[in-house]
């Protein structure tokens, strides 16, 4: 939907002119389940956006509606803070709660949300909604916060209000993504570097159509298992504060003192961090076969050690092998369903998309959605464009 169309619907519903704020979803090239271990990730923003149209109200009411869902939300700000409702607008409310905690006192407002990021596909529809909502709500007070602060605040909204203990990756890249680049992010310092993705490549995203659900227990359980690993390792090496600090040698030495399952989880994270840095380096040096190899290793590790893949994700990953122009692929995002990401030569992307869909349908009976993408701008770049 074009912003003008959304503004028109908004006008029809709220009888007021709207300002529109947008933020994208993301695809992660490599570095899965490393962000909350203070490690490295390499995601790109993609050209699917959440749009939030907003106008102030004089009566201290906050009204939140969607173009796609019938459930709407209304609260009088005198009964703030709201409770989690188990609905799509929890992401907006959570951001509102965090903004108030950060010192903002917004007046009443009308919000109308339109999301383009496929939901439950592991492409961060929630982070896109959070970031767009934060920008929209901040506009009410004409407040500018640094983008890094906005990303952190949105992550906290999801941690505290929604109850998913996610890391910073999705919100950060939704803010800082750049067209044709991946973002190499150090999730401890929040320093980042833009890594160019060659124009000869497309990111082909294959949706298994099996939805994942982050606030479900498995994600939080993985996080606890990592924390358990850190606790045990820190007794021997006090300088270890997160799995980011653990070397492969230390892990091997301590293997006998770790419960086997915890060791397995730690091994994935420690090696995955290394793979992220190697992938960035391979992009820089133009060694695409190595990038492909690292993506394959990442998938195998997520499947066998971290155990967050699914039969459909594995079928999708296997279906890509041997197709012309295919460089490498893996599951992307939290797992347990959702999408795979494939690096494919631009000239072969269309035929790759057709062929992988046929193979996946033959093996599972499910028709997948395939998206041929390039890395897109994050909300920050969009904001700067709007200011020009
Ligand atoms: C989800 C979370 C991220 C990250 C990934 C796994 O997308 O939101 O913070 O942990 O899973 O890499």
Strand arrangement, major sheet: 1-3-6-4-5
- What is the helix content? 40-55%
Show unreliable segments: none
Provide the CATH topology of the largest domain. Answer: Ribosomal Protein S5, domain 2
Main sheet characteristics: 5 strands, mixed
How far is it from the N-terminal to the C-terminal residue, by CA? 23 Å
Question: Number of helix segments?
Answer: 12
Number of strands: 12
Total discrete domains: 2
Shape: globular
Radius of gyration: 21 Å
- Tell me the structural class: alpha+beta
What is the CATH class of the largest domain?
Alpha Beta
Query: Strand content of the residues, in percent?
Result: 15-25%
Bound molecule kinds, no repeats:
alpha-D-galactopyranose
Give, in order, the helices and strands: HEEEEEHEHHHEEEHHHHHEEHEH
Q: What is the CATH architecture annotation of the largest domain? A: 2-Layer Sandwich
Mean pLDDT: 96
What descriptors fit this protein?
alpha+beta, 388 residues, 12 helices, globular, Ribosomal Protein S5, domain 2, four-stranded antiparallel beta sheet, binds alpha-D-galactopyranose, 21% strand, 12 strands, five-stranded mixed beta sheet, Alpha-Beta Plaits
Characterise the protein shown here.
- The protein has 388 residues and is α+β, with helices and mostly antiparallel strands.
- The chain folds into two domains: 3-196 and 376-387, Ribosomal Protein S5, domain 2 (2-Layer Sandwich), CATH 3.30.230; 201-373, 2-Layer Sandwich (Alpha-Beta Plaits), CATH 3.30.70.
- Helix content is 44%, strand content 21%.
- It contains twelve helices and twelve strands.
- α6 (217-236) packs across α8.
- The chain binds alpha-D-galactopyranose (GLA).
- Alpha-D-galactopyranose (GLA) is lined by residues 32-33, 35-36, 166-167, 169-170, 214, 333-334.
């Amino acid at each position: 939907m074009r912003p003008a169309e959304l503004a028109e619907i908004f006008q029809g519903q709220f009888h007021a002119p709207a300002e529109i704020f947008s933020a994208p979803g993301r695809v992660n090239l490599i570095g899965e389940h490393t962000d909350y271990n203070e490690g490295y990730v390499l995601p790109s923003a993609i050209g699917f956006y959440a749009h939030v149209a907003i106008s102030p109200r004089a009566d201290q009411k906050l009204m939140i509606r969607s173009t796609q869902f019938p459930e709407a939300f209304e609260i009088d700000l005198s009964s703030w803070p709201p409770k989690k409702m188990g609905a799509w607008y929890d992401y907006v409310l959570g951001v509102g709660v965090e903004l108030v905690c950060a010192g903002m006192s917004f007046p009443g407002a009308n919000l109308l949300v339109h999301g383009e990021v496929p939901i439950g596909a592991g492409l961060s529809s929630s982070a896109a909604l959070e970031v767009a909502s934060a920008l929209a709500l901040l506009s009410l007070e004409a407040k500018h916060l640094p983008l890094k602060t906005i990303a952190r605040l949105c992550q906290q909204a999801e941690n505290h209000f929604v109850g998913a203990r996610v890391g910073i990756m999705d919100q950060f890249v939704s803010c800082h993504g750049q067209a044709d680049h991946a973002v190499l992010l150090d999730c401890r310092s929040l320093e980042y570097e833009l890594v160019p993705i060659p124009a000869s490549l497309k990111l082909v995203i294959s949706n298994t159509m099996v939805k994942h659900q982050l606030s479900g227990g498995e994600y939080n359980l993985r996080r606890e298992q990592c924390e358990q690993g850190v606790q045990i390792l820190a007794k021997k090496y006090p300088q270890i504060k997160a799995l980011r600090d653990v070397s492969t040698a230390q892990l091997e030495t301590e293997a006998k003192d770790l419960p086997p399952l915890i060791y397995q989880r730690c091994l994935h994270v420690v090696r995955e961090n290394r793979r992220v840095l190697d992938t960035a380096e391979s992009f820089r040096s133009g060694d695409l076969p190595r990038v492909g190899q690292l993506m394959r290793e990442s998938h195998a590790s997520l499947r066998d050690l971290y155990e967050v893949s699914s039969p459909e994700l594995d079928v999708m990953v296997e279906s890509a092998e041997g197709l012309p122009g295919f460089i490498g692929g893996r599951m992307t995002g939290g797992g347990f369903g959702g999408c795979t990401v494939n690096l494919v030569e631009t000239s072969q992307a269309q035929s790759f998309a057709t062929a992988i869909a046929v193979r996946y349908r033959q093996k599972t009976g499910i028709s997948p959605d395939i998206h041929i993408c390039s890395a897109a701008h994050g909300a920050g770049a969009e904001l700067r464009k709007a200011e020009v």
